[in-house]
Amino acid sequence: MTMTSPFDFDLVVKNGFIVTASDTVRADIGVKDGKVVLLMADIPVPADCEVIDAEGGFVTPGLIDSHVHIAQSAAKSLGAKSADNWTTASQSAVAGGCTTVIAFAVQNRGTSMQSAVDAYHDLATNNAVCDYSFHVIVTDPSEEQMHTELPKLIEQGITSVKIYSTYPALKLSDEEILNTFYAARQYGVTVMVHAENSDMIAWMTRDLAERGMTEPWHHGTSRPPIIESEATNRVLALSELMDCPVLFVHVSAPDAFKVIREAQTRLMSVFAETCPHYLLLTAQEMKAPGFEGAKACCAPPLRENPEDRERVWENTVNGTVTVVSSDHAPTKYYDEFGKQLGLTKNPSKNPRGDFRYIPNGLPGVETRGPLMWSEGVCKGRMSPNKFVELNCTNAAKLYGMYPQKGTIQPGSDADFVVWRSPSARKTSKVTVKNLHSACDYTPFEGHDIEDWPVLTILRGKVIYDGKTNEVVAEPGYGAFLKRGKSSLQGPRNKWLSEWRPKYMDEQAKVNGA
């Protein structure tokens, strides 16, 4: 009902339970110029103000997917192509309740990080539906890149990098990892690590191929859990030596979680990310008939033992995991530049294909939020507040966007997802025909969903209507986010010997110590 009001709002969201990482409260939300300005019970609605009735449902912050690959192929050397561009990927994101994504700008060896960022700006500008930013994948941590270009990128709002301990085109040596950690600690940059032992994978892959064991499921055979846990433990040692905070991405192996948990118990600044596919799928997916198992090939691989999946749930809920992301890395299945490369580039002529040539990665930016809400909140594995912590707030804090993003409070962006009340939930099944990605399959086909977002709202504007399953924002509505530094735990200033970084001595002199 419209009435005389002392307030000036563009939008009021009424009759909802506001969920943050700490609280759930029945209140209305007043929005002006894309920002939250008031949280209050029964806000009087001014004339000419849009009203959204949450109908007793939950209102969470807009979800943040801090690990997506957009217009970037994980197997470019094979000729693979990403299924999504910035428009289709961001449309898919918002249809799953995601209002912010952080994608990867890849530095090719011998080139600059700045050129990589510029290229990704060209791809994203005027094409994204949701807000976005970039991490830089570092492949060449030279003195010039780490100490001249990196500070300039920070000024531009790029405050995170990713490094790999595997893949020939991407992997860094231990010395290069130390160089990266050294600079990251100095400048306050968040470091993400894909931790797998490259030499172990290469040896196992070569031996399997010599035996003709190239079917899709042998992708998992070539990468047993110890390959992830060894690399995690080694990178943790490098991190501790350099006193540099580190985030391990897409963690799946129980022993990797174990060493991360032990490091956290010792108060190291160590963070972990996992993904819905490690919570919900197993390696059995790679044994689907014919070549269908290629749809489930990702790295680290889905794990064989269902008990491993339960360990992922435990570590997700008990606080070891900091963020849940999708690792959206889509290549089409029915495409000569997609998963079919595992059949066409097939030296052994194995009728079920060759896992060495299957592009790694799964689509998932649209299904992440609904699956985590369904399997986590609706089925009682986690509270709505824990869901917000894992899918919104911690990502905003870790990547320097909080409190602009990741929460609902005065001054924050008016990014919301409206979910139904428990009594009004509508169960459905995941099916690729209802998704908005350009990818032609989903690994979660047929999976039960207890609820899907009713509305996705970005900066006070409805951008997805769940009742019609329609993305209603135009490409270009999404804006680039200039991020600050992480507000989560930083360096401890605890050292393993008398050695200290040179820049600490220089800073001490400046401060007169």
Automatic annotation (TrEMBL):
Its cofactor is Zn(2+). One of its GO terms (molecular function) is dihydropyrimidinase activity. It catalyses: 5,6-dihydrouracil + H2O = 3-(carbamoylamino)propanoate + H(+). Its EC number is 3.5.2.2. Residues 58-462 form the Amidohydrolase-related domain. Carbamylation allows a single lysine to coordinate two divalent metal cations. The modification N6-carboxylysine is found at K162. GO terms for cellular component: cytoplasm. Keywords: Hydrolase, Metal-binding, Phosphoprotein. It is an enzyme of class 3 (hydrolase). Gene3D superfamilies: Metal-dependent hydrolases, Urease, subunit C, domain 1. This is dihydropyrimidinase. The lineage of its organism: Eukaryota, Fungi, Dikarya, Basidiomycota, Pucciniomycotina. The gene is FGENESH: predicted gene_18.94.
